[in-house]
Amino acid sequence: MPTPHTVPEELQRVYALLGGEENISYTSRRGAALRYRLKDQSLADTPAISALPQVESCAFKNDWLYLTLQPQTYQKLIKEKRIMPSKYDGLARIIIQNVGGKANINSVAHCITRVRFKLKDESKANKEVLESTDGIIKVMQSSGQYQVVIGNNVADVYDAVLEVGHFQGGGTVDEDGNALDDGGSDGGKKSPISVLIDVISGVLQPTLGVLCAAGIIKGLLALFSFIGWIPEASGTYQVWYSVADGFFYFLPIILGYTAAKKFKMNEFIGMALGIALCYPNMVNSTGGEVLGTLFGGSAFAMNYYQSFFGIPVVMPASGYTSSVVPVILAVALAAPLERWLKKVVPDVIKLFVVPLGVLAVMVPLTYLVIGPVSSILCSVLSLVFGSIYAIPVVGGILAGILIGALWQVLVIFGLHWSLVPIMLINIANMGYDTFLPPYFCVSFAQTFVVLAIVLKTKDTKLKKIAILAFISGVFGVTEPAIYGVTLPKKKPFIISCIAGAVGGAFIGMMGTKIYMMGGLGLFGLPCFIDPAQGGAGIISMIYVVLGIVIASVLGFVLTFITYKDEEKAVQPEKVQNV
């Protein structure tokens, strides 16, 4: 049943034009946008609703009917206190206006802390106004994106930007700011590295919350099993483990969906490609009789157990479950094929012939070409980074220093996403990764540098920002600390990099292993527990904790000794959002 405040008195006619109140199963409002779920969409008269003087637009989208009020009507209702404005509407308007307006926005998305815009002309944006606005921590320009750093409220601000600007999240807009589907083009030229990072972040970021949750559950189960609280053979363990391990096992299906959204194709075709890679008969075929070996005698030797019209079907020993790269490459190639088929297939049979054509071509191509090529590329990456650790005596230390010192710099420019797949590849191939564990102590180095500033500063405004940044940093989200505290002051940021390098050197020297991608901050510690090693299964977690202590203490002490408040200069008046 619709909530009373959702339809203002002036719009009571909308009920009749939607097929009557009994035809509305659910309704909600964000800002000037109303959203309806109808039992029978055919009863809705959208042209008549659009013709109402109080209505700006009315259309169906993804089985929902979206109705947007005219700005004058919306402001009148707010002024008369008959509806309440969204908490972040004012901030959203300031952001849109100062990135050059709706017409300057190609697309908008968000990550853990940032609203990410792709602008037609970044010179039209007003960075000074944005950074002086309450609710905005920092503005970054990187990888072809104009990034407005918000912090922990980013999802709410992002939603408000979509509603206020009438944007489609992750999509593109035309000259007037209206949503379009451009087949994946963002407009403008970008470097190959920018494209790669954009693809990786676009595919992996939507899974991050659940990926972390599954990793936390898996790590905690390993810990509880080790200390005898929940035996592995118990039903309790198995029920929780079904999602903890299942999410990673069927990761190609999930990435098939997110990759399809990224490349603007049918999401269910993307999922079908992932399903093919996880199909039990194909996965289990690697345990059968070996028909032959390709690249025999080399580091890239691959056995094959089946053939497709006489062509060897080469697969890793564990199949493609938990893999990342094959399904992303498959979807990237499937997207243009789907668009071409949509153009040439008659409309009357397009519904099933387009998916048929894509799957009939792409599934064999994935098994015969894309899978083996991606396996070779992954093996090359593993060998390259494994060779750093193989350097006698100093290999692990050197790798730890590089990751520990540079991780925060990579985060600033969004380049850290280019390293995450390497960890996932190693975990899928070997069951663990030794390359990225040094990064884990870096967030704590940053966090305890901020704690030292909290204790030393007499600037009440800085102290408030730093306290919130410290709390956020304990749970692994350091952007508020970086952009709001340490980076503007330079020296604390450098100290945090030094502390991260020292802690990372220890973690690398000990050959620390991470067994799954999971939670951030304190919640990420269970990811370093290996349930298969019995009492030795927590040794990597112990090494990580020691590395955290080293980095945190060093960062805190150096900052506490060297930090001094700067003399205050006259600051421009803050823009207050309403």
Q: Which key terms come to mind for this protein?
A:
disordered C terminus, Gyrase A, domain 2, 4-stranded antiparallel sheet, 21 helices, 578 residues, alpha+beta, disordered N terminus, 52% helix
Explain the overall architecture:
This protein is an alpha+beta fold and 578 residues long. It folds into four domains: 9-79, 2-Layer Sandwich (Gyrase A, domain 2), CATH 3.30.1360.60; 89-190, Gyrase A, domain 2; 250-389, no CATH class; 391-562, no CATH class. The protein is 52% helix and 11% strand. The protein has helices at 13-17, 46-50, 71-79, 89-98, 127-131, 154-165, 192-204, 208-226, 235-249, 251-262, 267-278, 280-284, 325-344, 347-390, 395-412, 420-430, 442-456, 460-474, 479-489, 491-509, 539-562; strands at residues 24-30, 33-38, 55-61, 64-69, 105-110, 114-119, 138-142, 145-149, 172-173, 179-180, 292-294, 302-308, 311-314. Strands 1-2-4-3 form a four-stranded antiparallel beta sheet. A four-stranded antiparallel beta sheet has the order 5-6-8-7. Strands 11-12-13 form a three-stranded antiparallel beta sheet. It is globular, with a radius of gyration of 26 Å. The chain starts with 12 loop residues before the first helix and ends in a 16-residue tail after the last helix. The relative contact order is 0.08.
